[in-house]
Design goal:
The chain is mainly beta. It contains 1 helix and 15 strands. Strands 1, 3, 4, 6, 9, 12, 13 and 15 form an 8-stranded antiparallel beta sheet that branches. A 5-stranded antiparallel beta sheet has the order 2-5-14-7-8, with no helix packed on it. Bound molecules: magnesium ion (MG).
Length: 263
């Protein structure tokens, strides 16, 4: 007659044997979980962080605004290019890309003047519209403004999705220093009836800090009231000439990579 401990041990051995057997049946070879095709496209990264990779469309490399037009009349963009940077000309209004985009990865760098004046929204205000859907400020704005020790409503500070999502952190550098946005934009999808089928989403890194994490966009940016969608297709990327009286800001090193839509 077996002792209780021997019976318990043999029961455990039997159970573990069953488990090992079923695992061996489910996974017979490591190759069964390897995927070889299709191979990802080869992209040569820039030598320095923030540089344009090999498949990027360079929108501004410091020399000219050939990729840009004035938003309101589509005439050549009239902002000031000097010393490798472009500075907003508030008398000329917003500028936008000649090309239209759907989903993309965007890099841009901006600088608030060191001697900036003003307070709140009237201190270095500009912005990047991820899709320009019409004249003026129509579109979806990620805010640019001096948010270094400059309080304003949090869903209107730098790196906010304006009037929708405050940034997850305030990663602002001091006025006079260059700052970077790296943005992943997933354009909204509309049904055949023009109704929104899948809202836009946006991810933003501000100076390398995650500040918008796949945030769902509620509709086009509006200053007063609630955002709403209206159907549109591929759209330009737009930079804002804001009417506040503070000194204009500058941009440099702007590039975009189109990416496939989500399945
Ligand atoms: Mg703005």
């Amino acid at each position: 007659m077996k002792s209780k401990s021997v019976m318990r041990a043999s029961a455990l051995l039997g159970l573990s044997g069953l488990l090992v057997g079923s695992l061996a049946l489910a996974q017979t070879k490591p190759e069964e979980t390897e995927v070889w095709k299709p191979t990802p496209s080869v992209v040569t990264p820039a030598r320095e962080a923030g540089g344009a990779p090999s498949d990027a469309l360079v929108l501004f490399d410091g020399h000219n605004l050939d990729q840009w037009v004035s938003t309101n009349d589509k005439s050549p963009a009239g902002w000031t290019v000097a010393g490798g940077v472009v500075t907003v000309d508030k008398t000329r209004g917003n500028i936008e890309t000649k090309r239209a985009f759907r989903d993309y990865q965007l890099h841009l760098e901006w600088r608030i003047p060191a001697d900036i004046t003003g307070a709140g929204q009237a201190r270095g205000n500009s912005g990047v519209f991820l899709a320009s859907t019409g004249p003026g400020d129509h579109g979806y704005e990620v805010q640019i403004v001096d948010s270094y020790e400059n309080a304003t409503y949090v869903n209107g500070q730098a790196a906010s999705v304006y009037k929708q999502h405050p940034p997850l952190a305030n990663a602002s550098r001091k006025p006079g220093e260059w700052q970077a946005y790296d943005i992943v934009w997933r354009a909204p999808v509309f049904g055949a009836d023009g109704a929104i089928a899948r809202p836009a989403t946006v991810t933003v890194l501000h100076n390398g800090v995650l500040v918008q994490d796949n945030a769902t966009v509620a509709g086009e940016t509006v200053y007063i009231g609630k955002p709403a969608y209206k159907a549109h297709g591929a759209a330009p990327i737009k930079l804002q000439a804001h009417g506040d009286p503070s000194a204009p800001i500058s941009f440099r090193n702007i590039w975009v990579r189109e990416i496939p839509p989500r399945p």
